[in-house]
Structure formats: structure tokens, C-alpha cells
Amino acid sequence: MLNNSWDNILNVVWESDGFKKFLEVIDSEYRTKTIYPENKNIFNALKLTPYENVKVLIMGQDPYHGEFEAHGLSFSVQEGIKVPPSLQNIYKELESDLGIKPHSKGDLTKWAKEGVLLLNAVLTVIKDSPASHKNLGWERLTDYIIKVLNQRDEPIVFILWGNFAKEKSKYITNPKHLILTSPHPSPFSARNGFFGSKPFSKTNEFLRKNNIKEINWNLE
Questions:
Q1: Which of 17, 62, 107, 128 is catalytic?
Q2: What is the pLDDT of residues 169-214, one digit of tens each?
Q3: Which residue, of 3, 14, 69, 196, has the fewest CB within 10 Å?
Q4: Is the dihedral of CA 72, 74, 78, 82 positive or negative?
């Protein structure tokens, strides 16, 4: 399905009757409505960042619901799409934290290839209807992904922005990992503690201490 290590790891979910029925519902949604991202991009985060390559997980809620925006990576938009406000604020914090100038594009594929799993809790959305596929069944898969990453021996940084993402910390119990939380980078909450939280330098410091190659956050 994904042609990497996630296939075997997630097989217990893929092959469950409940998840198969849920995927039939999703297929029906794609046939009858405008759903984002494109079907071929639903699992991009898992395709680009295999299990053994994950150094960092950045948790998102659900895909962007505007035309041509979402492509299967949390907070990321496709080439040619204007950088959304939350991502603009992420870039501002990146500049403040590490001195990396804001990128003109919003495609975070390079981070995914560096080992940053850009995972949304919900992997699809109806056009112009945020959270429209919440509690439909995706969480069965994405919560399981967090749980199996928690079991991993090699340390991981879990970056949880906003109350929705922070709720996922209940699945992260392994003391080897680092959890970084702050308010969401959206314009409504970024000034309440997201700005100044320094998640990028804290992540690299933790990786360095654990003899893991740092993330190159520069998108150029």
C-alpha cells in the first residue's frame, strides 16, 4: 500500500474489518463529494517518512479544505499555493529561533524527507468544511501510529501545537521521547505562547544529545 516499513507495522489496522468498512465510506465520499487531499496524496506523510526514519512528529488536526491546498502533510500546502497564516507563523518562529528566513513556498516535503512525520489526526476533509471527517474513523489509524512510535526504542520528538494535538500526549508514555507543547500557530493563538517557544532549536538539541542527526529546517 505504502511500499515501505509502515505497511507491516500498520497491517493490523489495514486488515481490520472496521477499518476496511471505514475506507469504503471514504471511497464513497470521494465519489460523491469534493474531498481533499487528492486520493493519491492521502498517505503522503507515511510514504515520505518511513517508520525507521521518524525523528520528529508534528501533529496537525485535519487537511486544509481549500482548493489545491492539501497534499497529505500537516501544515504544508502544494507548490504554487499561498503560504497559509499558521504556516507563516511557523516560519516566523523558525526565523526567531534559528535565524532561517521565511520561505516563499509552503511545501514542507523537504522536512518530511529529513525525518519529520507531518501527520494530521484526520487525513481527509470535505471541500470548504473544516473538521468534516473528524471522528469518522481516521483516528483509529493515526492514534495507532502515535502508539507504535511511542514504543520505539530510539528517541523521537513529538511536537504538539494547540489543545487538539496536546490531547495526543496521553499516548506518549515512553520516557525516552521528548514532548514539546505550545499554543497553536494560528493567528488566533500564536501570541499566547507559540511565539518564543523555540521548538526547532529544542528539537535539534535533544536529537544532538541522543546522537541522532539534527533536522535541517532550512527549506531552500
A1: 62
A2: 999 999 999 999 999 999 999 999 999 999 999 999 999 999 999 9
A3: 3
A4: positive
